[in-house]
Specification:
Blueprint: E1 3-7, H1 9-16, H2 23-35, E2 38-43, H3 44-55, H4 60-73, E3 74-77, H5 81-89, H6 95-106, E4 111-113, E5 127-128, H7 130-139
Parallel strand pairs: 1-2, 1-4, 2-3, 4-5
Length: about 140
């Protein structure tokens, strides 16, 4: 069984921007998605935010190239009216996190992987850190 995992924006940025000390684990998670060891997803609202933040350090053309490559092996979790309505009902303090959690539930994710686990304490989907997800994958 392949795990369906929604990857939070901070993990994606860690990998793409080589943010220390988190880059290695984040890169391994993307590699697992690329090889099919897990079914990787990202939320639709993360795509635009990732482009904006990543393009600040590189050209717009390079950001488009990288996002195009990610789209080959990461699926986009849609942000629909139902997802927003569910997010509004979640007791998470940060609304963007609530939308991410609701999107992960909508796609039937097994886990949401993030470095900000405490921000997702009330998530309807179990939350793992990148290190925890890699340990889980190695045990399967």
């Amino acid at each position: 069984m392949v795990l369906r995992v929604l990857i939070d924006l901070n993990v994606l940025l860690d990998a793409l921007q080589q943010r220390k000390p988190f880059a290695w684990e984040a890169g391994e998670i993307l590699a697992a998605a690329e090889t099919g060891a897990l079914e990787g997803w990202w939320a639709a609202h993360h795509v635009t935010t990732l482009f904006y933040l990543y393009a600040k350090g590189v050209s717009s053309r390079e950001a488009r190239r990288v996002l195009t490559e990610l789209m080959i092996f990461l699926k986009v979790a849609p942000i629909t009216q139902g997802v927003i309505e569910r997010a509004l009902q979640l007791p998470l303090k940060d609304f963007e996190d609530a939308v991410t959690a609701a999107a992960s539930a909508e796609i039937g994710a097994s886990y949401l992987v993030t470095r900000n686990q405490k921000d997702f304490a009330e998530s309807p989907v179990p939350v793992l850190s990148p290190v925890e997800l890699l340990k889980l994958l190695s045990s399967l």
